[in-house]
Write a structure and sequence with these properties.
The protein is α+β, with helices and mostly antiparallel strands and 306 residues long. Among the domains are: 40-126, Thrombin, subunit H, CATH 2.40.10.10; 140-245, Trypsin-like serine proteases (Thrombin, subunit H), CATH 2.40.10. 15% of the residues lie in helices and 28% in strands. It is built from 4 helices and 16 strands. The chain has helices spanning 2-25, 180-186, 244-253, 296-300; strands at residues 33-34, 43-48, 51-58, 63-66, 72-75, 78-81, 87-91, 101-110, 122-126, 151-156, 171-177, 194-198, 215-218, 221-229, 239-243, 280-281. It has a 6-stranded antiparallel beta barrel. The protein has a 6-stranded antiparallel β-barrel with strand order 2-3-4-9-8-7. A two-stranded antiparallel ribbon has the order 5-6. Strand 5 (72-75) and strand 6 form a beta hairpin. The protein is globular, with a radius of gyration of 20 Å. Residues 29-256 form the Peptidase S1 domain. Residues 1-20 form the signal peptide. Keywords: Disulfide bond, Hydrolase, Protease, Secreted, Serine protease, Signal, Zymogen. It comes from Glossina brevipalpis. It is found in: Secreted.
Length: 306
């Protein structure tokens, strides 16, 4: 009897170990979950020649907030700004290739202090306003930092793990916000213009290539713009975001947020008048898709940040 119980316990322990090992092998946004349609109506895919390069957040019918490094590329160690007419955004779908609408970019403005890792934030003006629906809505800017160790959602179509595949379905997960003092202890590169989010201890998660420019959200307001990770995707180190509260005045001054009505907006949506101009239905659009596998854009836009 004792032998039978010992054998049974051994099998139970073996099964637990196998399940734990399997979980570690699963794609670890890293360790993300599939989003539901309309769950994050403010996120967009920023595209170069119709190929996804970064994320972004809708802040009004005419403007998207993203990372400055998403709007440039490097050739032979020289940085070049991307031409706005080659850029577009894709909104209204959790899928990268279907169900959404595409709008061309008219122009963009990078923060004037952008250099290297610092001041990595930009506003993008669309060639025509977005038509708001239940699946295409703006998000309000945070006026203050999230509390320490509060859970903030990260969202994006970035690689599922280091050098891993890109998902077709939007991914999301949560990370814990850190105070500036604690963030500075863990990463001396950062200052108050950054927001640090800490991955889970037992199953590290976080941002990866293709998540750049996307949102970090706390209490349904935008608190961060994805900038970079200290180490590989899904490492135990904090991931780093542009701190939206720090840049809120600059964002308003360089967009139309000073002219929009945010009253009576319980869900953080912005009421913009005269936004009836139609979006482009990608399902019926004549614009050709770029084969990422054979496109120079994919190699050029692997930006060294996430």
């Amino acid at each position: 009897m004792k032998f039978f119980i010992a054998v049974l316990l051994a099998f139970v322990l073996l099964e637990v170990e196998v399940k734990a090992f399997t979980r570690r092998l699963q794609p670890r946004v890293v360790a993300g979950r599939n989003a539901n349609q309309g769950q994050f109506p403010y996120i967009v895919s920023l595209r170069f020649m119709d190929t996804h390069i970064c994320g972004g957040s809708i802040i009004s019918a005419n403007y998207i907030l993203t990372a400055a490094h998403c709007l440039s590329t490097e050739i032979d160690d020289e940085s070049f700004d991307l031409e706005p007419h080659r850029l577009s955004i894709y909104a209204g779908s959790i899928h990268l290739g279907s169900g959404g609408v595409a709008v061309q970019v008219a122009e963009y403005t990078k923060h004037p202090g952008y250099a290297g890792l610092y001041r990595d934030i930009a506003v993008v003006r669309l060639a025509q306003p977005l038509n708001f629906t239940d699946e295409i809505r703006p998000i309000n800017l945070s006026q203050s930092d999230p509390p320490s160790f509060a859970n903030a959602d990260i969202v994006g179509w970035g690689r599922l793990y280091e050098n891993g595949p890109r998902p077709d379905i939007l991914q999301y997960n949560s990370m814990a916000s850190l105070s500036h003092d604690l963030c500075d202890m863990l990463n001396p590169l950062v200052d108050e213009s950054f927001l640090c989010l800490l991955p889970h201890r037992r199953e590290p998660n976080g941002i990866c290539n293709g998540d750049s420019g996307g949102p970090a959200v706390y209490n349904d307001v935008l608190v961060g713009v994805t900038n970079f990770a200290t180490d590989a995707c899904g490492s135990a180190h904090p991931d780093v975001f542009a701190n939206v509260a720090y840049y809120a005045d600059w964002i308003r001054e360089n967009s139309d947020l000073g002219n929009v009505n945010v009253e009576n907006s319980d869900s953080g949506n912005v009421d913009v008048e005269n936004s009836d101009s139609g979006n482009v239905d990608v399902e019926n659009s004549n614009s050709g898709s770029v084969d990422v596998e054979n496109s120079n854009a994919d190699n050029a836009m692997e930006l060294g940040r996430f």
